[in-house]
Structure formats: C-alpha cells, structure tokens
Design goal:
Elements lengths: L1 H9 L9 E3 L1 H11 L1 H23 L3 E13 L3 E3 L8 E3 L2 E17 L3 H67 L5 H36 L5 E3 L13 H11 L1 H20 L6 E12 L12 E11 L4 H4 L1 H65 L5 H35 L6
Parallel strand pairs: 1-6
Antiparallel strand pairs: 2-5, 3-4, 5-7, 7-8
C-alpha cells in the first residue's frame, strides 16, 4: 500500500531547484532567451543564411587583376623574312625588362537555369531552418510547462502528505488517551506511529525529487541562481476541440510540415540545377591588357601597348548527354524521398493528435472518477474515524481507511495535472503556442 502511494508521488517527478520565485510566463520567456538548444537552432539559421549568401556571391561577375615585371632574355638572334633581301624584322641576342598588366571580368549569362535554381534552393533551405527553430521553440516551451506543472504536482503531494501526517499526530494522541483508559493496546499505538514513519519517508523522497526538479528547471531556463515556481498555479478543465478541426489545424500549422514543403521545393530546384549541364552555357568576358617593354610601370615615353578584349563564348558539354544520368536520377530520388518523409511525418502527426485527443477525453473521465472516489474515501474515513473513536474498530481499520483517502487525494491531483499537460501537449501537436 505504501509502495503504491510512493509510486504515485514519484511517477512524474521532473527536474528543477529553489529560491527565486518565477511565474510560468516569465519562465517560458527565460527559456526561449537562454536555452542552449535554442542557441544551437539559431546557429543553424545563421549557417543556412551564410550558405545562401555564398550562392548569391557566386552569381556576381568574376573579376581579377594582375601586374607582372619580368626580365626577358633572347638567347639567339631572331629574323622574320618576308621574301625580300633584308629581313622584315630582326632581334639580336639581348635582354630587357618588361611590365605586363591585365584586368579581366567575366560573367555567365546563361547557365542552363543552374544559377537561378541554386539561388532558390538555398533560400528555401534558409527558410526551412527558421521553421525548424520554431519547432524547437515549441518543444522548449512545452518542456518548461511540463516541468513547471510536475513540480507543482510534487509540491501539492507534499502538502497532502503533511496534512495526513498532522491527522495521524492527532490520532496518536487519541490512541494514547484510549490506551491509558485501557480501551486499546500498545500495539494499536505502534501501528499509528509506524504509519507516521512511512509518511515521513515518503515526504523525504518527495522533497528530494522536488529539489532535483527545481534545479533542472533552472538549467532549462538558463539561470544559475536557484529558482522556485509560483504556488498559485491553477488547474483548468480545458476541453479539446473536435477531432477533425484539430487534424486540419495540425496539417496547416505544424512548422515541420511547412519546412517539409520547402525542402521538397528545394529538392526540385536541385534537380533543375543538376539538369543544367544538358544546356549550352553562355558567358561574356572583358579583358584589358597592358604591355610595356620596360621595367618602369609608367614609361618616360609612349612605348607601351594597350589592348581591350571583349568576347562572348558558348560552351556545351557533349559528355553530359551520357555522363549526367546518375546525378539526375539521384536528384529525382531526393525529391521522392522528401515527399515520402513528408507523408510519413503527416501520418505521425495525425496519430499524435488523435492519441492526445483521446487522452484528453480519458483525462476528463479520470478526473470525474477520481472526484467520486475522493468523496467516497472521505465519507468512509469519517465513518471509520467515528467508529474508532467509539472503540468499535481497531487502528488498523482506521489506517486502511486513511490510506484509501490518501490514495484518492493523490490520484485526483495526478489526474488534474495530467489533464492540463495533455491539453498543452495537444496545443503543441496542432501547432499552437503551448501557453
């Protein structure tokens, strides 16, 4: 019996630690600002944005400039004959300095839609990373709410234990009086005292679980100082909506499904980018050349040569007709995989929403049954206590009745807290803010 009571108390003991009192709304805000997991999500967003910026940078014209000074040596004489008696041009063996400068710029005008699709794919993935961060925020928000309510459950359990312990202290005094009058034996007093010891052991376990829960709550919130929760937390009998409405909202509001749609579009853009090798590529270029047969960059007189080269080139890879089939097939399979993963996640979300919807209905029924059981246990304890006071029952009967009352009190507390957490979890499952 006592093991069952202790099991009810420790079943939902969640992490946290003590002293600064933090309301639930403030706790959620602290977690969203300080939690390390959300900082990792923010890092992923920045990385995705950086990759998007890289794609945009690669679309800019490629420019370069160079300047070279070299000493050229002609080792043997050179003559250019045009059929006349004298060479048209001759260079004796000599050495001289020269300066060569060049500035060039080039841009691919048409890349087979690769540039546009790469830009779109990177942009979609950056947006998907933001939706992933939104999902992580919902998870952290629910973790704070669940931790908060479970700590509240532990605190209320401790209060119920204390009340029952105070009740036993009063009964102990009654038994001592009845013992002096010879109505009861000392064995009846020992049973009362043993029950007190068992309740005290349960109280110690609950207190330790509560301190551990509060410490872990502080870690979740990203605060180093000990924290405490708001003890005025109220439990509401929240009712779930119609199942069809919940499923429809989950399909349109869940950030995971929105991110999946973007990833499917990104995979389609990657296919377009992969197929770009099947198209001719057109590029434009411009180059300025400076040649000066002198080591001085700025010569004393006009002895340098300048040239400007403007051009358009067309390139087509014939090998892409037979060498790109594997890459194209992989890109198509990536689209299929993204669609299948989205379908799988839709099924999982539907199952999750349906399960939580049924859990909400079950939780309300458990509350109703627990309230009835508590009323019955309270009435039974009142009658048993009256008979015990009149010497008609033994202390073992009184203790058994009190255990049933304690179980009913704890069961009603657990049912109410679990119903509240089921409601919050359902809100997360359909894509709503948790609290």
């Amino acid at each position: 019996m006592y093991r069952f009571v202790l099991f009810l108390l420790l079943l939902t003991a969640v992490p946290g630690y003590s002293q600064r009192r933090i309301p639930l709304e403030e706790a959620i805000g602290l977690a969203l600002r300080n939690n390390t997991a959300l900082k990792v999500s923010a890092d992923r967003i920045q990385i995705a944005d950086a990759r998007f910026r890289q794609v945009k940078d690669r679309a800019l014209p490629q420019t370069s400039a160079s300047l070279q000074a070299a000493r050229l040596s002609i080792l043997s004489p050179f003559e250019l004959n045009m059929g006349g008696p004298e060479p048209a041009f001759a260079l004796p063996p000599t050495s001289f300095w020269s300066t060569i400068g060049m500035v060039s710029a080039g841009k691919e005008i048409f890349s087979g839609f690769a540039e546009k699709s790469a830009h779109k794919s990177a942009e979609l993935l950056a947006e998907a990373s933001r939706l992933d961060a939104e999902k992580d925020s919902r998870e952290i928000e629910y973790a704070v709410v669940a931790s908060y309510y479970n700590i509240y459950k532990l605190m209320q359990s401790a209060r119920i234990l204390d009340e029952n312990r105070e009740l036993l202290l009063r009964k102990e005094q009654d038994v001592k009086n009845m013992l002096r009058e010879g109505i009861l034996t000392s064995n009846e007093l020992l049973k009362i005292q043993l029950q007190q010891s068992n309740l005290e052991l349960s109280r110690v376990d609950v207190r330790n679980a509560q301190e551990a829960a509060l410490f872990n709550l502080g870690t979740l919130l990203g605060v180093e100082t000990p924290v405490a929760i708001d003890t005025t937390l109220k439990l509401t009998d929240a009712l779930p909506d119609q199942l069809g409405d919940l499923l429809g909202q989950a399909e349109t509001s869940r950030s995971e499904l929105k991110a999946n749609v973007l990833r499917i579009k990104s995979a389609e853009s990657n296919l377009t980018q992969t197929r770009s090798v099947l198209y001719p590529h057109v590029s434009a270029s411009a180059m300025y050349l400076y040649l000066n047969p002198n080591k001085n960059v700025i010569p004393d007189r006009h002895t340098f040569l300048q040239a400007v080269n403007l051009g358009v080139s067309v390139h087509y890879s014939i090998s892409s007709l037979y060498a790109a089939k594997g890459k194209i097939q992989e890109a198509r399979l990536n689209i299929d995989q993204a669609r299948h993963l989205n379908t799988l996640q839709e099924e999982q979300i539907r199952n999750e929403v349906f399960g939580l919807f049924r859990s909400g209905i079950s939780a309300r029924e458990k509350i109703r049954v627990s309230e009835t059981a508590l009323a019955q246990a309270s009435r039974s304890f009142t009658l048993t206590e009256s008979k015990f006071r009149n010497g008609l029952l033994l202390s073992s009967d009184l203790l058994e009745s009190q255990n049933l009352l304690l179980q009913a009190q704890l069961q009603l507390l657990n049912s109410r807290v679990d119903a509240q957490l089921t409601y919050y979890k359902l809100q997360k499952a359909i894509g709503n803010p948790v609290h």
